Amino acid sequence: MQQTTSAAGRSGHLELGLFGANSTGTSMSKVPGRWHPTWENNRDLVLAAEAAGLDFHIPLARWRGHGGESDPLGVTFDAIAWTASLLAITRRIKLFTTVHTPFTHPLVAAKQLATMDQIGEGRVGLNIVSGWHREEADMFGIAQREHDERYEYTKEWLEVMLEVWSQDRPFHHEGRFFNLRGVVGDPKPRGGKVTLMSAGASRAGRSFAIGHCDLLFTILTAPEACRDEVAKVKEAAWNADRHVDVYTGAFIVCRPTRKEAVEYHEHVSREMADEVAIDNAMRQLGVNCHSFTPEFYAAFRGRFASGYGHYPVVGDPGDVAEELRRIRDLGVRGLAISFIDFAGELPYFRDEVLPRLAEMGVRRAG
Ligand SMILES: Cc1cc2nc3c(=O)[nH]c(=O)nc-3n(C[C@H](O)[C@H](O)[C@H](O)COP(=O)(O)O)c2cc1C
Question: Where is the Luciferase-like domain (predicted)?
């Protein structure tokens, strides 16, 4: 039961999209000129991304910021409302939405996703997040589940959603977390279900994605580790008679010269790093999330300043294109990129990097 997310998926090209423009983006930096989300700039950005031929956008789901002077993610547009609105005004680009399973009842999510899939004529995808942020759970008055149990809960949550979409008659669901009577739901998604992605890099997170999703969205810590992870995910999926692809993220700084790009990246991730916000985020993540090792936090503090831990790709257009080719060659199917200023930096990336990727055969031409 393979679902590809676009024509690029079928031809083995790298699918390329944006990550997190519905929020302040991935940076934890005080650098001037950084992205601040509004409806108008998001609308224009996603239309520009579609016109440039990008394949998708994945929004962040966040309910509170990380504090400090820049308060990263303090402004985050609701991913459901954001995606639904953009599906209505786009024609080709795939738009994921991101849903926190502990904060959203699966019947509500089933109807929202089915509605969005109708609006977008089959272009919606679901990025499933099981919730790691304890202060967010506190905001909802929900006790934070133990790490691996979160994925048990999400598994049953997803079962309910898929049942709503597959059943034409009222059904009962009796499980460990949900006891539901006489459940019905219409409309259904156009193709019966939507593309399912799970974000989470721990063993439990990975095995949930392998068993139940089409895509695993994970952090690229180091290229060799990523190659290994992709191979393991594909092999485990294969053994379970499934097909799962891996998406990952990258933070891009592309400038006419390598020197300019490196200097700007240093400025963003060191001189202007929002140390208070980074400390807060690392403390919150370190306690609740198993995606990163303690060594990663210590070694890659700068990566949090620029890209929330995502892999930095920094250089002139040739360097950036070459690095994206290397990422594609790790077996990664999709790369979700972010910039300090999405709208300001996308045109240069479109004009200088996308044609190089097409020439190199990393992406389809045109
Ligand atoms: C690429 C990526 C994107 C994520 N996006 C979100 C998000 O938008 N909102 C959120 O609350 N958690 C997000 N997460 C967190 C995961 O859903 C998960 O809770 C976290 O990685 C801890 O899971 P793990 O310990 O299994 O890795 C993301 C994680 C990754 C790796």
Answer: 31-333
